[in-house]
């Protein structure tokens, strides 16, 4: 959970820096890195809030000492679905943007 917090802060700072700079999203490289940052923000949020967004109704008779229960579970079905969407978006989009970055460098170095 701590690595998700660090990733969220660093990706947010990177996206904010790119978006607020004078050049903004003017080059393909900046747009790709901005996309990587945004997708990593979604993925980090999913991992960061994951333990807390589990539906509390999953506990066995609200017994806090049940084997699979946690005192941090206070979510509902909708929060669980949101967390799943955040993780799914981040997990799929980050590698796709990385492939865009690889293709960008291939074109830049090989074909100039």
**Got a strand count?**
0
Shape: elongated
Order of SSEs:
HHH
Q: Give the percentage of residues in beta strands.
A: under 5%
Report mean pLDDT, rounded to a whole number: 85
The helix count comes to 3
Q: Helical content, roughly?
A: 55-70%
Q: What's the Cα radius of gyration?
A: 19 Å
Coarse structural class:
mainly alpha
Give unreliable regions as ranges. Answer: none
Description:
With 112 residues, this protein is mainly alpha-helical. Helix content is 68%, strand content 0%. It has helices at 2-20, 28-49, 77-111.
Q: Quick summary of this structure?
A:
This protein is mainly alpha-helical. Helices cover 68% and strands 0% of the residues. It is elongated.
SSE layout:
Layout: H1 2-20, H2 28-49, H3 77-111
Helix pairs in contact: 1-2, 2-3
């Amino acid at each position: 959970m701590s690595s998700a917090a660090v990733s969220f802060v660093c990706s947010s700072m990177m996206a904010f820096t790119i978006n607020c700079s004078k050049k903004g999203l003017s080059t393909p490289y900046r747009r790709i890195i901005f996309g990587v940052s945004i997708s990593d923000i979604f993925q980090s949020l999913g991992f960061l809030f994951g333990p807390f967004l589990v539906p509390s109704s999953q506990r066995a008779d609200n017994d806090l000492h049940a084997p699979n229960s946690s005192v941090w579970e206070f979510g509902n079905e909708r929060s669980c679905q949101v967390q799943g969407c955040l993780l799914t978006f981040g997990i799929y989009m980050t590698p796709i943007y990385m492939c865009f970055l690889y293709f960008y460098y291939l074109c830049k170095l090989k074909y100039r």
